[in-house]
Design a protein that fits this description.
single chain, alpha+beta, 10 helices, 8 strands, extended, Anoctamin_TM, transmembrane helix, membrane
Length: 320
């Protein structure tokens, strides 16, 4: 197994007990279906090198994340049918496992890692004398909040060197950035680039002073053109990256906390947060803090009015 097949690193701190480490390894291997190798960290602790087989990546991408890729006809659609239909070299760019880019693979591995939850009967963190805050709590999230582990994705030297070679300050390789980093980050770059161009002042300062109303009309037209161009460009990116769709139709984050229940519509197991805990948090946290902030704002407003009155009295000109 080469280093290019290591997609995630999980570091277990020295305070993490042997029992907890064995539980984490067993969970990632048996429940998440991932492959692990171990090594010792130079500053202490255990390092887990996490990877996954091609079959496991395909299964997560197709069934769990429901990714969309271009098939042999160039149509972006879900990963259904023969996998060979999505492996046309004409439409694959920077793919490391079939049509999946590094960011796709790391998303699949991260989903598998974070989607493993404790059983409802478990109330104590294995290997540590800590109580779990909720039933069916995410395994890695519990150890991470206890400051026992930390995880991060790995780099790919080949793809990183290629990205550096294609880099251009004024025309950054948006698709290459998206293929290497998380899928939502690169959308900031084309927006900022287009926005910077639209803000450029093409007229000298001494001319703009005398334009007045025509300049306002020009600014309004410029903003309209900018928004229309960005709408079309963002739609192109959304189609090419298969990131369009309503948020309510997307699956919840794997680290979402709550109790596993069957969805009466889809029949799938989903995580539901307790309505009682939601109401309790609203009643004892959100509403009191919001009310306190509003009260302080009202007090400062009255103090400002009173200060204005006092200043008028103190600094008023004498009638004599």
């Amino acid at each position: 197994m080469g280093d290019h097949r290591i997609f995630y690193i999980l570091r277990l701190h020295e305070s993490c007990t042997q029992e907890a480490a064995e539980f984490i390894v067993k969970t990632l291997r048996e429940d998440a279906g991932l492959d692990l190798t171990r090594s010792r960290h130079k500053n202490g602790g255990l390092i887990l090198h996490i990877t996954a087989s091609d079959e496991r990546i395909w299964k997560i991408a197709e069934n769990d994340l429901r990714l969309k890729k271009k098939d042999s006809r160039g149509v972006t659609r879900p990963l259904e049918g023969d996998p060979k239909e999505f492996c046309d070299p004409k439409y694959i760019k920077d793919g490391i496992i079939g049509p999946f880019t590094l960011s796709d693979v790391q998303r699949c591995v991260s989903y598998a890692m974070e989607s493993v939850h404790f059983e409802a009967s478990m109330t104590v963190l294995p290997g540590q004398n800590r109580r779990l805050p909720l039933k069916n709590y995410p395994v890695l999230a519990a150890y991470r909040e206890a400051n026992l582990i930390e995880s991060f994705p790995t780099h790919n030297d080949t793809l990183l060197s290629k990205l550096y070679s294609e880099w251009n300050t004024f025309r950054p390789p948006i698709d290459a950035i998206r293929n290497y980093l998380e899928r939502m980050w690169p959308s900031i770059s084309p927006f900022c680039l287009l926005y910077h161009v639209s803000l450029h002042d093409f007229l000298p300062r001494n001319v703009t002073i005398y334009l007045g109303l025509p300049l306002w009309v020009l600014n309004l037209a410029t903003v309209t053109v900018f928004l229309e161009i960005w709408k079309r460009r963002s739609n192109d990116h959304a189609y090419d990256w298969a990131s369009s769709g309503k948020l309510r139709h997307k699956k919840p984050r794997p680290e979402y906390r709550g109790v596993l229940k069957e969805n009466s519509i889809s029949g799938e197991m989903e995580v539901y947060y307790s309505p009682y805990k939601t109401i309790k948090k609203l009643a004892f946290v959100s509403i009191p803090i919001t009310s306190l902030c509003l009260l302080l704002a009202f007090i400062f407003m009255l103090a400002s009015f009173k200060a204005d009155e006092l200043f008028e009295i103190w600094f008023a000109d004498s009638p004599y």
